[in-house]
Amino acid sequence: MSGSMDFDDGRSKKGYYFSKAAVAGSVVVVILMLLTVGLLVGLVGRPTCANDAAAPTTTSSPPKPTTTLPNDVTTTTGNNDVTTTTAGDNDVTTPNVDATTAPTSNDPWLNSRLPNTLLPIHYNVKIRPVLDIDVATSTYLFYGSSTVQYLCNVSTDYIIMHSHAELIYDNDIKIFDDKTGSEVTVESNTPYRPNQYMVIKTSSPCVVGDTYTMVADSFHGELGDDLTGIYRSEYDNEFGDHRVIAISQMESTGARHTFPCFDEPGFKATFNITLYHNKPDFYSIANMPPIDSQTETINSEVWSATKFDTTPIMSTYLLALVVCDFLYEHGATATGVQTRIYSRPETIKNDEGKFASEISPGVLDVLATHFNVPYPLPKSDQMAVSDFGAGAMENWGLVLYRETLLLFDANISSVHDKYSIAQVIGHELAHQWFGNLVTAAWWNEIWLNEGFASYVQYIAVEGVKPEYKPVSVISATH
């Protein structure tokens, strides 16, 4: 519609009227009056410099022990702002860095990225998830111990690594000089919770080029249902029995909930994992094949301890730890790489893992040929989990999925579901090269991992299921 509209109905107008200029002038006057009053109040109420509070003092290192207490005394003060650690024969209280200290800008624990002063070489990690609720605490718990050997890259008297506040240490952390075998004196061990750090101060700096070993011989934490670190998943089996299993999700910061570590993707190391279980029909699975199984008696209970082979050099976020009662479909690639599909027993009995089992060996073979790089591990297992927040996770040697992204039920699943499963498997197995073998140093480069895998998944599907015409799909959607 165009033209003007005349709303004058010819009747005479009555009442009081103001011009636009008068209204604008009144508004300006009111605003000026308000500004004047505000300035006067601010100037009159401002305290003088003599009454200003003194600037807080700063420290350049974590605070040292302030109070010596008798043996076996535990002290807490206020809102968890004082903790008790053990040094020698006495317990000492040490303020938490984040609660009581105003650090200087060059304190290494202030940086959200780990310093490159220490570089991890090898971890030995033992984890014992208890799949029965602890009556005393009404929670599920896991117990563990770990060592990490590290290289002194830059001389420093600080050992900074990740350890979440949920991880509770039963004994003192110890440091050993690998060259001499002697114990290094630890002056303090202080958490810096904003960055989830453990800050250990030693009596003397490390020697560049030498290696040292940190020992955490006993710690525990909650085996929660928060889908982070090592956690519990629950389901009812086909007989109506309630099952509790242990699963892990380490990306991006779950490892520090499970054991003390250098928990950044660029800090790669090798790992030896040992997992414990004590229930009939249960067993342990990790990134590598098992190499030893023994029984141990712990608190009058007999536990099976499964030790796994040493991993390749890898990031902490790719670790996978599972204790479960699942069944599996077995498969193998042309070169003999094991490719099992694990899931709840009733789903395997219902053949829901067969499709994934049929295509996974071919996907690995296609990708190894395409990259001209052999798959470097002896196995490439995949597992469907009912409680899994990530959708799918490319843990090296043990990829975890939500059930809907790995299992195919011929009675209810669609043809499109088959294509989706093939595509997701192609994506996650592509990560075994892009992301696992070659890893971004930091999370701001994760698009490289995901970008390559998102492209290569179509090549993988084309290699095993050309009838799905994935190339036409990528042409239509990208």
Please name the defining characteristics of this protein:
30% strand, disordered N terminus, 24 strands, 2 domains, 7 helices, Neutral Protease, domain 2, five-stranded mixed beta sheet, Immunoglobulin-like, nine-stranded mixed beta sheet, alpha+beta, single chain, 478 residues
Compact summary:
This protein has 478 residues and is α+β, with helices and mostly antiparallel strands.
CATH class of the largest domain: Mainly Beta
Strand coverage percent: 25-35%
Please count the helical segments: 7
Q: Count the domains.
A: 2
The multimeric state of the shown protein is: single chain
CATH architecture name of the largest domain: Sandwich
CATH superfamily caption of the largest domain = tricorn interacting facor f3 domain
Structural class: alpha+beta
Estimate the helix proportion, in percent. Answer: 10-25%
Mean pLDDT: 84
**Span between termini:** 42 Å
**Strand segment tally:** 24
Based on CA atoms alone, the radius of gyration comes out at 31 Å
Query: Spans with pLDDT under 50 lasting ≥5 residues?
Result: 1-18, 39-100
Shape: globular
